[in-house]
Amino acid sequence: MASNVNPTVRRRRLGQELRRLREQKGMTAEEVAERLLVSQSKISRLENGRRSISQRDVRDLCGVYEVEDRRIVESLMQMAKESRQQGWWHAFGDIPYSVYIGLETDAASLRVYEPQVMPGLLQTPAYAEAVVAGALPEASAADVEKRVQVRLRRQDRIHDTRNPLRLWAVIDEAALRRTVGGRQIMREQLERLLELSRLPHVTVQVMPFAMGAHPGLNGQYAILEFPDAADSTVVYLEGVTSDLYLEKAGDVHSYSVMYEHLRAQALNVDQSREFIEGIAKEYTRG
């Protein structure tokens, strides 16, 4: 696969264009489904980018929408072809959160709140292994190793000198004090967190227990923004058996405002580093 082709992003972009064509035609998803003798849910999945789109699907939809410009049809057909190619993560087999990985790989910036563990992009290999093994007690050693390797590969975006991911992480004090994998692993993890927090494109803030109630009490979430204005911002909510992706403007706005409050209530960057250093010393003394 060409390095500049991300199938997940292609599906989203193609789905958005197909939705625009449908709405421009003044048709509902149900009406389109009836014309093509398919389920309404299929049309919805095609438009939200959660399902691969075949060139035949594009051809049929363009026929229903009476798209006469051949250049538009050919462009959409090419996007459909690219959307069915495989990203680097497919080499690791079935990854439950592959849609998220595809989005993260192409994102320009990521804002994340983590209440329980360190952000995956900032984890050491040993800490990542302990987190995965603890969260999935019935997983085989091979599956744990595969997930760890995927997590470490995702971290390439942080170290990419040409196109680094702009990461802003607000981390709850609980994640700093939860002893994952043992005291030595925690000390090394906190030292890595401090090291990465000094990168110009990485910002780390700590939400201390003393702050009390705050807008992040409902749990972890991430906000992904993309370099192309045609790609809408996505809010990602991780679940146990399924994940949720929010793209409606109102939802994105609500979570963005909530994140601004989180950043305002958390310790500033310098205070956060001092706080992390203090806890790292506790693990050293132990």
TrEMBL record:
This is Helix-turn-helix domain-containing protein. It comes from the Bacteria. Residues 18-72 form the HTH cro/C1-type domain. It holds the Pfam family DUF5753. CDD domains: HTH_XRE. InterPro entries: Cro/C1-type_HTH, DUF5753, Lambda_DNA-bd_dom_sf. SUPFAM superfamilies: lambda repressor-like DNA-binding domains.
